[in-house]
Amino acid sequence: MEHFSIATEAEKSADFRRVLWTGKHTQLVIMTVPVDGEIGEEVHEVDQILTFVSGAGEAKVGGQTRKVVQGDLVVVPAGTKHNFINTGPNPLVLYTVYGPPEHADGAVHKTKEEADRLEEEGKDEPPTS
């Protein structure tokens, strides 16, 4: 059994992205988007569910824009263009579930720049089995 106090795990990690758990069909990731930062506009081939732990931001999903705050949950279906932007004075902290996994098992990306570089280099690939 894996057990997390998810808000505590998310709040104590200053990393842009940290994979907490990877299963055969899903993956649990925590993210911290710095002040004035963003996840970056992207499209995944997997479904994604994001739950916001603290901070304030803006969700742009499939051409729609909404404000997000602590306790909000946003679903991003596979193939949908999306971005999440920190609009508040503090880090935007969230956890997300990908189905199937989207990132390398155990991946830790300190910054968005590091995450982008590793993705471009093909060093952030999900497990194949």
TrEMBL record:
Which stretches are annotated as coiled coil?
A: none
Protein's name according to its UniProt entry: Cupin type-2 domain-containing protein
What CDD domains does its record include?
Answer: cupin_Bh2720-like
Domain Cupin type-2 positions: 30-98
SUPFAM superfamilies the record matches: RmlC-like cupins
> Pfam families per the record?
Cupin_2
Q: Where is the composition biased (Basic and acidic residues)?
A: 103-115
* Stretches for region Disordered: 103-129
Its lineage reads:
Bacteria, Bacillati, Actinomycetota, Actinomycetes, Micromonosporales
Q: Which organism is it from?
A: Virgisporangium aliadipatigenens
